[in-house]
Design brief:
Blueprint (H helix, E strand, L loop, with lengths): L5 E4 L3 E7 L3 H6 L15 E6 L5 E10 L2 E7 L3 H12 L5 E4 L4 E7 L13 E4 L2 E5 L8 E6 L7 E3 L1 H11 L36 H10 L4 E9 L8 E4 L2 E10 L2 E7 L9 E3 L2 E5 L8
Parallel strand pairs: 1-11
Antiparallel strand pairs: 1-7, 2-5, 2-6, 3-4, 4-5, 7-10, 8-9, 9-10, 12-15, 12-17, 13-14, 14-15, 16-17
């Protein structure tokens, strides 16, 4: 039996609006994905990088109400707007923080009135917009609604969404991907539909394309099972005293960790503070 849908408020997410005649050409030269794929009926996943190819911010983009909406982490939204504005120059675009105007929900469970089943499928829902998570359909749908508008379904707890995300091994923005330090192929964005290798130039494109072509990704964000107290983000993961990685976000016996791939061979359990962790390669991840 298909479970009834539940809307889980993502209080850690907000929305930035990019509008104006030059909005698409402006973003096309900055982000890792092809902005022309973002329409009224399709959302995309993308990131903004440093010129050296290091992660700055990631977001979902959907066209709605005459603008491009960026569903992004609330922590750091001011920095995202500052960086976008820095690149604005003479472009005829408006960049607006919609915090307080719009809210983001994750919807889990069967939803007959929701978007389609393929990643990125989108449709208008009431006064808002809904889209299947562009990274993978198993993560459910996202719903952007005006603040104060209640979803027309039961509400769920954020923790349920967090358990699902961690079980699938999907990173959650700057909670897992270190700003100005992590390369996006280390954070699996290419395998989560966040990079278009045919779109042409964008900030950080050269190093990203070179790493993909040469296959030189030495570290990956992967899920780990945690036995014992959940370690703090940044805690070192060790095997026989050798550091092989570091823990990132976690909850309820699960966590994400950035681990060197060459050190995974033969490792069943590793140490992390007072806990032990078991690395796990998801089926969707190409090691």
């Amino acid at each position: 039996m298909t479970p009834s849908p539940k809307a889980h408020l993502l209080a850690g997410r907000t929305v930035v609006s990019v509008g104006g005649p030059d909005a698409r050409s402006f973003l096309q030269g900055l982000i890792t994905n092809d902005i022309h794929k973002a329409t009224l009926s399709r959302a995309i996943y993308a990131a903004l990088l440093t010129p050296q190819g290091k992660y700055l911010r990631d977001f979902f983009i959907i066209e709605f109400d005459g603008a491009l909406l960026l569903d992004c982490a609330a922590d750091g939204v001011d920095d995202l707007i500052r960086r976008l504005t820095m690149y604005k120059l003479r472009s005829d675009v408006s960049i607006d923080d919609r915090t307080g105007d719009l809210q983001v929900y994750a919807v889990l469970g069967g939803w007959a009135d929701g978007p389609g089943a393929s990643p990125g499928d989108a449709k208008a829902v009431g006064d808002g917009i809904a889209f299947t998570d562009p990274r993978m359909a198993a993560l459910g749908a996202r719903l952007i609604l005006p603040a104060g508008t209640a979803p027309d379904m039961a509400t769920g707890e954020f923790e349920d969404y967090e358990r699902l995300r961690l079980s699938l091994g999907v990173p959650d923005g700057p909670r897992d991907i270190e700003v100005e330090r992590t390369l996006i192929l280390e954070a699996d964005l290419d395998e989560l539909n966040g990079v278009d290798f045919h779109k042409g130039c964008y900030v950080g494109q050269e190093l990203t394309a070179r790493m993909k072509h040469r296959g030189k990704v030495r570290k990956k964000l992967i899920p780990v099972e945690v036995s014992g107290p959940l370690p703090e983000p940044g805690a070192a993961i060790t095997v026989d005293g050798k550091t092989i990685g570091a823990i990132r976000s976690g909850f309820d016996g699960q966590a994400m960790a950035l681990i060197r791939l060459e050190d995974l061979d033969g490792v069943e359990w590793a140490e992390c503070g007072e806990a032990r962790v078991r690395p796990r390669i998801p089926d969707w991840l190409d090691r």
